[in-house]
Amino acid sequence: MAILPGGGYAEYAAVQSDHLMPIPDNLSYEEAAAIPEGWVTAYQLLFYIARGKAQEKVLVHAGASGVGTALIQLAKLKGLKVAITCGSQEKMEFCKNLGADLAINYKTESFKQKVKEFGGADIVLDCIGANYFEDNLDAIRLDGRWVIYGTMGGHQVNQVSLRGMMGKRISLISTTLRNRSDEYKADLVRSFIDDGILDAFRNSVLKPIIYRTFPIEKIAEAHEIMEKNENSG
């Protein structure tokens, strides 16, 4: 299995040799396919960029997504406390079963209030963007690290309080993985392995979450399910 620069919907792909990872013997090919993009992205966000440490509190938006379910498990593996947002009671229970300490239905509850009651977030991992900007600012703690890696809720923010960010000494970071250099990706893959993440899969401590599998002829159907936000994993 490997990080790809694109072209993953194929029977064969050419990749950098130092972007490869061995498949743990206890995983199927389908489970292995869920690891490079989702889990390596999650590892990058939480540890490479946000510098997450044991006992810190992390707010994960879209907790039931592929990256979200990876973030929950990685955070718990390393001793962090996890709050997540999602859009249904079913997904809340799903995320709690993965280890989330606090699950919030953003459709019925104020996540900023719930997170503040949780003690605030040292880290916010945000794939939503504009729609959550003010509430993230309220929920994050002093010296918090706020990583934006998606804009599913819009990319333009009006009337941002820079003083509010300065007052909390917030580090606001935006990131992607695809356009990183080959050297960066190789180093990331090496750290992912050296940090024992693959061993945790081998020992069934971590588990890739597969919602459904589809033949390649039904890729459009798979995308429709994701666009409707039906999937967990």
Description:
There is one protein chain. The protein is α/β, with parallel strands linked by helices and 233 residues long. It is 39% helix and 14% strand. The protein has helices at 29-33, 35-49, 66-77, 89-98, 111-117, 133-139, 162-167, 182-194, 197-202, 219-227, and strands at 57-60, 81-86, 102-105, 121-126, 140-148, 171-174. A six-stranded parallel β-sheet has the order 3-2-1-4-5-6, with helices on both faces. The longest helix is centred in the first third of the chain and has 15 residues, at 35-49. The chain is globular and about 50 Å long. It starts with 28 loop residues before the first helix and ends in a 6-residue tail after the last helix. The mean pLDDT is 95.
Q: Mean pLDDT, nearest integer? A: 95
Main structural class = alpha/beta
Looking at how many chains there are and whether they match, the oligomeric state comes to single chain
State the distance separating the first and last CA atoms. Answer: 18 Å
What strand line-up does the widest sheet have?
A: 3-2-1-4-5-6
Fraction of helical residues: 25-40%
Total of helices: 10
> Major sheet: size, sense and barrel closure?
6 strands, parallel
Low-confidence stretches: none
